[in-house]
Amino acid sequence: MNLKRLYQNSVLLPVLIVFTYFCLIVDTVKYPGAVENHFFIGAPVFFAITVTLLLLLDTDSKLMKLVFKANTIFLTVISLIYIVLNLIEGANFTNYILNVYHIHLDGLVYVVIFSLFVFLISKFKSSFPGSIKGLGLLYPAIVLAVTFFMVDNVPYITNMAVSRDSYILFHLGSSYDDRMYYQWGIFYQYMIFVRNNTPTDATIVIPPEEGAWLMGTGEPNFVRAFLYPRTITPESINIPNLQAFGPNTYILIAWGQEECNPDSGCHGWPRQDIKVQKIIYKDPNSSSVIETETNAIYKLGGSQYVYGLIEL
Question: Into how many domains does the chain fold?
């Protein structure tokens, strides 16, 4: 038996497809990142590797044809389940499905997208070049990199779009703030808090992009979209020269993402002691002010409140 016939009779790709589905479903019913936490390689990585191999290797075997047919049926079923669950969530509240059914929609979307990728490969595989002369091993490396980029972004964008549309569909009379809070959660509350407590010509100093800050708190263009026309200035972990800032300057007091805690390496910002005119702390449950200190010294961890503003 030659190598080609041996490969065609193997179960390499079917087993890899089933294993990838298993990893993605584990992330859906446990929590996104569960596979990576236990096996050091995340389910999205297996997703990208499987799709790459499906694109580059021969899939013209009887077993693979059977797998593709089964996947088409599964795609229809899982897509309907995903849409129905999102509609149920949109009719209720954020994380309703997680609270009631213990299913992570941000994990389930990976199952749907993976099934869609396998379906598209089954239909259009012949249009995709298995190799490009002159590139050698660089070609599969490029395919894997592009695939991983898509895997890393398409499910997130899809889930966000579907969840937003589902919410709007059932809340046509909701206010703008309610819709934005549904989409952006605590981050939107924080931006409203900053807007309500700073003048429009203020300079807002934000943490660096490195670090797991609350959503996009360290991304200047993202923050600017919520706080314009205020000037947004990113700084390093330790602000080197506080004297360089003029009056009307405010520094965000920011923590990590919602799931972060000090034990996992997350920490607050800014990292240094700062003598300030005023410290304004945000209520953890709203965009309101819960505590104000004047002529104080800000210290990391010196308050139970982890979001706020420092007025220099």
Answer: 2
Q: Do 90 and 157 belong together in one domain?
A: yes
Query: Tens digits of per-residue pLDDT, 237-264?
Result: 788 888 888 888 999 988 765 445 555 5
Q: What is the pLDDT of residues 148-181, one digit of tens each?
A: 999 988 998 898 889 878 888 887 777 878 878 8
Q: What residue numbers bound the domain in which 223 lies?
A: 185-311
Residue with tokens 């859906």: 28
Cis before 262 (ω within 30): no
**Same domain (yes/no): 163, 197:** no
DSSP strand pairing (274-282 vs 289-298): antiparallel
